[in-house]
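With this grant's support, we have settled on a layout for protein records. An illustrative entry appears below exactly as we store it:
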Amino acid sequence: MKIKSIRYIAISLLFNFAFYVHAEEIDLDEDLELSSDIEESNKPYENKEKDKAEKAEEEKVERIRQILKYGSSSQVRDIVKKIEKLHEDNQKSLMKELRDLMKVDSILIRQKIIELIKNVKWKDLDKEIIPFLNHEDSDLVFLAAQTLIKKKPDGAAEAASKVIEKSDFEKNDNGIIRLLSLLSVYKYKELNDFLLKKVKEDTIYRNNKTAIIRHFGGVEDTRREIVEYLETLLQEEGDELVRGFAANSLGKIKEKSSIDILRNTLSEINSKKDPDEIRKHARLKMHIIGALIRLGDTKIAPILVEMTRDDHDGVRLRAIRYLGELKLTEYKDLLEFKAKYDTNAKVKKEAEKALEKMGFAAKQENGT
């Protein structure tokens, strides 16, 4: 009798356990179905919100379109800036209106359109900026050249070259300066013979002269007549600014034959004792040192080390940067000291960068 009772209890327990497990499975399934139902019920709401946002964007685009077509000059100029915040597809949907506005007489509107084209990622209207290089308004030419420098469409350098040939180099013209920068970006050397003749004219405006000198370095024209002209300027020109740009361009051209001339000029500057003379030649000195760095002249190192002791933060920073560019690992200890103890945060950071260029990690330590 006891055995039967025990069996009955055991069977009951097994039955109840199985029922409980089954019930748990059913509850779990129900929970999943319920969760799925909730997710499905949320979708219409999410879709509705998405549709609402898209509709709002479409309405915004349409309002902008109407202003571009019919708004006053000030309204158009104000609304153009807002186009940058639109989705790219919506920006492009306004291309017809933008193209039409590039033909209006208002220079202010044209400027705003060109600025927009400079800032957007797409390039569909880039080439339509090129004709503005020949505009009579120098500010518009300057902005158009800036935009083309950034976007780099085909044909811009050739167009700029034709404009430069017709320009008056005796006048102060920011347009000429920016057009020459554009040629440098495109590495366009075809106009250099013309520019070499122009730069030697006595009546050329100073800013136009320095722009041509910078251009020779920017396109890295290694022809002997260009290099010799720059070397002559460095040695004989009375204008310190012109001499500085000549030195800078010689460094960019990287003609090794220029090293001795640069060194000799630097020695002349370092031999000066008069404080006024030292200050007068300070900027030229930095240009020469920078040129020698580009030419890989490691003999400049002792001067750079001396510069790291200068009280002027900018001088120390540049000296440390140059040591890093030359990768002179023998000055690792000096750079580690500067990275830890220099009084200027930017100089410390520059020392860390120099160490990284050499393959060393700057040691982090607080100094006093």
